[in-house]
Write a structure and sequence with these properties.
The chain has three helices and no strands. It has one domain. By secondary structure, it is mainly alpha-helical. The protein has helices at about 5-55, 65-110, 130-150.
Length: about 160
């Protein structure tokens, strides 16, 4: 057996593996936007439900205690959705970092050492995932603050 076909087979394997890694990196990036869209839809719907309870509980002849419990329950659901979405994005970040590490190892072997530098954690401020997680956490906290300071005290 000659070394040329083996070298071609190895190069083909590297190329296919590299394509797969890039595909997985792309999918990880797209998933973040899907998770954000799901959070926005669910949080908007649940917050709208809490607002509907606040506005309509008298008309519907629901006691203030029951209406407050409903608003708090909906806020708890928003918090669960926010926590789950944040968890999914965080796991996606870990997944992305793992594929980038694998990409760097592959290019070190297939091209030359140091061809592709691994991501630096200090660049966290430049990652859009950081700001999406921040948005989710801050929006969930603000909903609680507004509910506790404006909505629930008015339900008497």
């Amino acid at each position: 057996m000659t070394t040329e076909p083996q070298s071609t087979a190895v190069a083909d394997f590297h190329l296919e593996r590299y394509k797969y890694i890039l595909q997985q990196l792309h999918a990880s990036n797209e998933n973040v936007y899907r998770f954000l869209a799901i959070y926005q839809a669910l949080a908007t719907t649940l917050a709208g439900g809490a607002l509907a309870v606040f506005v309509g509980y008298r008309k519907w002849e629901i006691s203030a205690e029951t209406a407050r419990a409903g608003v708090i329950g909906l806020l708890c659901l928003i918090t669960l959705v926010a926590a789950f979405t944040t968890l999914l994005i965080f796991v996606g970040i870990l997944n992305w970092l793992d594929y980038r590490r694998e990409e760097c190892e592959l290019t070190d072997e297939a091209v030359r050492p140091g061809f592709r530098k691994p991501p630096r954690h200090r660049n966290l401020v430049r990652w859009y995932e950081t700001y999406i997680i921040l948005f989710i956490v801050v929006s969930a906290v603000l909903m609680w603050v507004f509910a506790l300071t404006l909505v629930l005290p008015e339900m008497n």
